[in-house]
Specification:
- InterPro entries: AB_hydrolase_fold, FrsA-like, FrsA_esterase.
- This is Pigment biosynthesis protein Ayg1.
- Keywords: Hydrolase.
- By secondary structure, the protein is α/β, with parallel strands linked by helices.
- It has a domain of 151 residues.
- The strands form 2 sheets. An 8-stranded mixed β-sheet has the order 1-2-4-3-7-8-9-10. A two-stranded antiparallel sheet has the order 5-6.
- Strand 7, helix 11 and strand 8 form a beta-alpha-beta unit.
Length: 487
């Protein structure tokens, strides 16, 4: 059986979401399965199937189609991209967008429609009132009856949880308002959306300070090797969260916590990963959340393929010295990276460029070579992304037009073309759905052909990033990697 083929037992495992562990798949596998072109050439047939590749999904027919065929259901279930939000918060905005026939998600009109309903402001105001009540509760005194102290503690906990929930709902509204993409390099691409982004961060900070045991700390890390002639910024903004004091994962030697660097994607940034961060904290791991070049607050030049190498070097140097509450925070022997979607590209790259500094890397939904293929680019705007993808990715990579992007991006940014994939890597888990219409599954498979042996978990029939079953593979794998590192 070919190393890329899946037998019936393995297909059943994929349906159940069991994890791929340990051994991995050999990087000596032959090229050519499923029509893959040799040496990275365009596939004759994409593995998602010709029909799916050629199809234009109905949600691209306008905002009403987007809402009714793609977004209404996840919104009703508080699923991505509506995680932390509620259906009732969004229905007025989508009703207004449909009535006004505002079909361009990239327009300021899209953003102002969400802001003009006043729902976000009302949620923040309600949260502020609860925080004011919280602050008015006096600390328990030694003369108070024990039952009264317990009641006060319970009330404080309730107020924190309720206020946090309200703030996060407001953040979700600001998130969708600034969709699908923002950048500040070399300048802010849309001031209206940028204002919504700044508001999202402001409110998220309010929520994060209510998480007493593991609050959100925003740190500005010095970008030590920035190229000022390229206009790169001085600071790398990151969010840091550490497990509660006394967590068993922190050795008595004070070497710090096992840590995950979470690299965000094209449209989801630092304030959009609360649940994932909570999963890390529950395992006793610290987390550093950082944005990738060409998105949000990242200071690195997105047009320079090597800027992430300098970015991550500065980040890792800072992590080696950072102290939280007077103690060393990060165990630098137990640092892992998880790159999400567009962040998967940078996860694959750092797995090779900084292999000796990392215990392991997860690249989920990564596009590293075939994503940049001209044939893929001609069809990707009709696939599963809610908006057109190529304009955002053109700007994200520093191109002034989509045509320039399509013509030059593969030669410049492909990790196969520039030799990165031929280098040794740290342990690297590749995760995606076989029907991914954004980052083709071929991009995960090509990594099996080059460099060090890799580990992979592909979900048959699943779309981008392999959801909803992907996390059932990722967390156990990360746990095994963390446990394998000796003192």
């Amino acid at each position: 059986m070919s190393p890329h083929q899946v037998n019936n037992d393995q297909q059943q495992e994929q349906k159940q979401g069991s994890s791929a562990g340990g051994g991995g798949i050999s990087s000596k596998a032959p090229l050519g399965y499923g029509g893959l072109g040799g040496l990275g050439k365009s596939p004759k047939h994409w593995l998602m199937g010709d029909e799916a590749f050629e199809a234009r999904m109905p949600h691209h027919d306008g905002v009403q189609a987007l809402w009714e065929t793609k977004w209404k259901f996840p919104c009703s279930k508080s699923l991505y991209p509506f995680h932390d939000g509620l259906y009732a918060d969004f229905a007025p905005s989508f009703d207004a967008l449909i009535k006004a026939n505002h079909n361009d998600m990239t327009s300021p009109a899209w953003t102002t429609t969400f802001l003009s309903t006043g729902v976000a402001e009302q949620l923040v105001e309600q949260g502020d009132k609860l925080v004011a009540e919280l602050n008015n509760i006096k600390p328990p005194g030694c003369l108070q009856p024990e039952q009264q102290q317990q009641q006060q503690q319970q009330r404080r906990r309730q107020l924190r949880e309720q206020a946090s929930s309200l703030y996060l709902r407001a953040c979700c509204l600001y998130r969708i308002a600034r969709f699908p993409y923002i950048t500040s390099f070399p300048k802010v691409n849309d001031q209206t959306k940028w204002d919504a982004w700044e508001k999202q961060k402001e409110i998220y900070s309010k929520a994060g300070q209510l998480w007493e045991e593991s609050p959100v700390e925003e740190v500005k890390v010095a970008f030590l090797d920035r190229q000022t002639q390229q206009g790169e910024g001085q600071w790398i903004p990151v969010y840091v969260r550490v497990p509660p004091a006394g967590t068993s994962s922190q050795p008595s030697t004070g070497s710090g916590y096992p840590t995950v660097i979470l690299m965000t994607g094209l449209d989801g940034y630092r304030p959009d990963n609360t649940v994932r961060c909570n999963e890390f904290l529950a395992r006793g791991w610290a987390v550093v959340v950082v944005e990738i070049p060409g998105t949000a607050d990242c200071p690195a030049d997105p047009a320079d393929p090597e800027s992430p190498d300098r970015l991550w070097e500065s980040l890792l140097q800072w992590m080696g010295t950072y102290q939280y509450r007077g103690k060393r925070t990060f165990d630098m022997k137990r640092v892992m990276v998880w790159g999400l979607s567009a962040g998967g590209y940078y996860a694959v790259r750092i797995a090779h460029t900084h292999s000796h500094r990392l215990a392991g890397v997860v690249a989920q939904g990564a596009g590293v070579h075939y994503f940049y293929d001209k044939k893929w680019m001609e069809k990707v705007d009709g696939h599963e992304y809610p908006a057109q993808l190529t304009p955002a990715f053109a700007m994200k990579h520093g191109y002034s037009s989509v045509d320039e992007f399509k013509a030059g991006v593969q030669k410049k940014f492909s990790l196969l073309e520039n030799g990165i994939l031929a280098k040794p890597s740290t342990r690297l888990l590749l995760v995606n759905g076989t029907q991914d219409g954004l980052m083709p599954i071929e991009d995960s498979m090509v990594l099996l052909e080059y460099g060090s042996p890799k580990e992979a978990r592909f979900f048959t029939g699943a779309l981008h990033m392999g959801y909803p079953l992907a996390n059932s593979a990722v967390y156990p794998w990360m746990e095994s990697v963390m446990a394998s590192i000796r003192e």
